From TrEMBL, chains A, B:
Family annotation (InterPro entries): Asparaginase_II, Beta-lactam/transpept-like
Record lineage: Bacteria, Pseudomonadati, Pseudomonadota, Alphaproteobacteria, Rhodobacterales
Name this protein carries in UniProt: Asparaginase
Top-level taxon in the UniProt lineage: Bacteria
Length: 331, 331
């Protein structure tokens, strides 16, 4: 089965652009509650699986042994925007490990945070690896590497850190990964299906009901994400705004190329979606619609206007376009 | 018929994202030489029809009467990036009309040009309407309004300027417009089909072979675009890079939501394409492929690597992904 229409953009009463995609809602058993498009479509979760990549950090005992508390766990799951709060926390975490920016392998990235970007640009500086949206995940990898007594090239696919990530990834998705790609931050990103990713999110959503080590680790990561929504992304970002709008009851995470996941502990439900063309504007609208459909997000909350129902303004402040859910999707 | 696969993005040997779209190649008669997807799909050309919106400026005699030479005609057809060269020329043009920034209706926009953006950000200024990528088009509208003795609200759909634009638009596309939307710059943007837009581009491509006023105007606009590729967009931008790569023999123009057109005077051919989801990365790859297919662009030119065949690098400088033409498109 193919990707189905999910989100439309209208202008002047005419359909201007259309986004197709796949989405799966999974229950506690990992079974499909509802799906659109092809549940078996193979995708790269990209940053939407950072909480899975952080499982070995906690499950191995590395987090406890090396003083990684909830705010650092939130950063390990984050695609942060390089604001001062993010950079300062990552810098301190690296310092506590006796490490520095040069030990990261994620590459430099201009901060998305306006004030931080302005500071870098206007001082004539260059952005550094700590500004990279994945620097928390990478510092988590360094923490695990230290705990395992493994070498410095933690981003290589055959490194013990990535071997542990792969094992956890395949176990929580319930599938052998059909392959991996190298992510924007140079870490391996293991492929799975949309169903596999939704099943993994259901594993996280039900973690508090189990007492095994991996489930305890998963529950701590979900709690960290919902306790520190501003660390998972940043002010003005969809993950932060959506988690705040749901009062910490749901964890959500986006990934590059328009992947979005949600973890609903109260319902024991996991969601995963991928927009075929990779457009964030569509994955944000689609996850907003699914969270409303599941009763997790109040349709009257201002963020819903921002990501789904509100008009799109032009540079002169006129309402010129609108988003609509495609017929048959999440309505 | 539906949109067809055009451009794929691959990572780690797996297809990660896919862009569908429509494309039409038209000959001198306005007939279809080749098409993909639905030639009758209704689209908003957005900024890809700026050369059509500039026809009345020249055809009316306004350009000659008010000293609008080739560089200003190029700016009238431009989606410039607010670099100093663009802002200075628009400012002077407005000054020659005895007008200023407040007479524009396009709204302010942060320059895309890095140096100009840095200057605005680091001075703590706000961007102004002259920085708006459409400020040249709007100054052209003001010039026509002056020549017609019409009022200041030149962007309103019933204003004589927009009435003249609509008439020219419908005549060169060969279709009554099914409607209009308000563009990012607040000007009306008339809808047409992909075939209609390609037919209009073929009209421009064959303009030099005719002696009527509109054809002479079209030929002057094509010559202005190809003579000043850096004014039509700016350094590093696809329109500028592609026109330079073809040595001024072909005019190309992009529009928001992934529209791209090309005018090939030597072949008497026009091209129009629209990527369904609105992604520029796909419309740039698709127009590059079609220009190569038609023998207008050397497949060995460095820009081809940049927009189509070259690897996609991550933040650490590793080649991590690649674009591919979808089977059956332009290959």
């Amino acid at each position: 089965m193919k990707a189905v229409p999910m989100v439309e953009f209208w202008r002047g009463g005419l359909l201007e652009s259309l986004h197709l995609g796949h989405a799966v809602i999974c229950d506690a058993t990992g079974g499909i509650v509802e799906a659109w498009g092809d549940p078996d479509a193979v995708i790269f979760p990209r940053s939407a699986c950072k909480m899975i990549q952080a499982l070995p950090l906690v499950e191995s005992g590395a987090a406890d042994a090396l003083g990684v508390g909830p705010s650092r766990l939130a950063l390990a799951c984050a695609s942060h925007q390089g604001a001062a709060v993010h950079s300062d926390l990552v810098t301190r975490w690296l310092g506590d490990l006796g490490l520095g920016e040069n030990d990261l392998r994620c590459g430099p990235q201009m901060p998305r945070d306006h004030a931080a970007m302005r500071e870098v640009l206007c001082k004539g500086d260059s952005p550094c690896q700590i500004h990279n949206n994945c620097s928390g995940k990478h510092t988590g990898f360094l923490t695990l590497a230290r705990h395992l007594g493994a070498g410095p090239e933690y981003h290589e696919v055959d490194h013990p850190v990535q071997a542990a990530v792969r094992q956890a990834f395949e176990e929580v998705t319930g599938l052998a990964s059909p392959g991996y790609g190298i992510d924007g931050c140079s870490a391996p990103n293991f492929a799975t299906t949309v169903h596999g990713l939704a099943r993994a999110m259901a594993f996280f959503a039900t973690a508090a009901t189990r007492s095994d080590g991996r489930s305890k680790a998963a529950d701590r990561l979900v709690s960290a994400m919902t306790a520190f929504p501003e660390l998972v992304a940043g002010e003005g970002r969809s993950c932060t705004n959506l988690m705040r709008a749901m009062g910490g009851k749901v964890a959500v995470k986006t990934g590059a190329e328009a992947v979005f996941v949600a973890i609903l502990p109260e319902r024991g439900i996991g969601i995963a979606l991928k927009v075929l063309d990779g457009a964030d504007r569509a994955s944000e609208a689609a996850i907003t619609a699914l969270l409303i459909r599941l009763g997790a997000l109040d349709p009257g909350h201002p963020v819903v206007k921002h990501y789904l129902t509100g008009p799109i303004m032009n540079r002169a402040g006129l309402a010129v376009a609108e988003r609509r859910l495609a017929p048959g999707f999440a309505a």
